[in-house]
Amino acid sequence: MEYEPNYYQDRVALNVLAGSVTNAKDIYQAAKGHVVCGVLTKNYQSNESCITDLKKYQKAVNNAISVGLGAGDPNQSKMVSEVSKVIQPQHVNQVFTGVGYSRALLNQNKTVINGLVSPTGKVGYVNIATGPLSSKEKTTEVPVTTAIALLKDMGGSSFKFFPMHGLAHKEEYEYIAKACADNNFSLEPTGGIDLENFEAILDIALKAGVHRVLPHIYSSIIDQNMGLTKPEAVAKLFEIIKVKLD
């Protein structure tokens, strides 16, 4: 079983939501395996029910699973960590303060764990107060490079920059991309990404020299009637990646 996402050309993979096991299989095939299928713990009443379901997803897509919070909900942090301990997925979504707990429970260094940081409106700074308690307090604005170092200290793998609102925070994102490249840290742009702005967002990260990029594309490519991610949209996103990297 693989414990790391299958990055295309060792640079880029997709993170999209899976609405069912069948949907996960379709997504996986559409991206030629260069994807992690997001399943949100927020949709489950208990750890046990989530774990039971995730094992089905895991088997269907060679463990290309991303255990998610659900719109960055800090109250899901503990459940994400505990479920991930059992599942041992390829990818874990975490609030900034939950990264160390997740890494300790996983007890291995291969699974990618992101740390959620938010825009501040100030280039060069991010808000790290994204945990269950800290998110209720005043924002904690720290230099991007300090936030990267803190996440590395805790066993984190990447920055989850959320909510980006597409390119609304373009200058902040450009700075973050350069900092991630300079500090050998992965980047996960998240929030408001769609088929129209995906290429521009990916381009910024690649041109900055970020080694591994894992964009999250969620609601914009979901069939709202079915609640399933559209495989044809995933295929289009993957084609954009191939054009950029081949």
State the end-to-end distance: 27 Å
Average pLDDT, all residues: 97
Overall outline: globular
Structural class comes to alpha/beta
Search tags:
17% strand; 11 strands; nine-stranded mixed β-sheet
Walkthrough of the structure:
The chain has 246 residues and is α/β, with parallel strands linked by helices. Helix content is 38%, strand content 17%. The chain is built from eight helices and eleven strands. It has helices spanning 21-30, 47-60, 77-87, 99-106, 144-154, 170-182, 198-208, 231-245; strands at residues 14-17, 35-40, 65-68, 91-92, 112-119, 125-127, 141-143, 158-161, 186-189, 222-223, 228-229. Strands 1, 2, 3, 4, 5, 6, 7, 8 and 9 form a nine-stranded mixed sheet that branches. Helix 3 links the parallel strand 3 (65-68) and strand 4. It starts with 13 loop residues before the first strand and ends with a helix. The mean pLDDT is 97.
